[in-house]
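Narrative of activities, Objective 1.

The group set out to show that a structural description can be obtained from nothing but a protein's sequence at a throughput compatible with the screening campaign. Below is one input-output pair from the validation batch, recorded exactly as produced.
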Amino acid sequence: MKRPEGFTLVELVSIIVILAIISITVMGVSNSGDAQRVQASRDQVLLALRSARHLAMAKAGAGRSIEFVALASNDSIDVQDAGSSVSLGAANYPYVLGQGIEISDATFRFDKMGRTTAGSISISASDASVTVSVSANGASQ
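Output recorded for this entry:
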């Protein structure tokens, strides 16, 4: 007796399952790189904003301003005390974000109570993006 040509249902389902697993794995690997770099940049922006706020509450006084500056022209962030970049612990400013990361222009000037004007900062890479929000009381998320 001659066996019919072709694949059995079990073989076809097995191949479909294997292809699905491979495609999910490949898609996850290709997208996670940009998302991870954007999240790391977001963390750096949040750290700089919070550091600027705390520095302002500790040092700001009459005629002295603490600013957070994001520059789209060179995709960097800076914390400035009276117009000069500062070093806070291990963080030296200005800080250039990673290759392929884009940030929107933004400036937040903090007063001695840690307050600033409300606004937002966009951070993106080729297929991932986040927005950091800054409230008028200086809190960022």
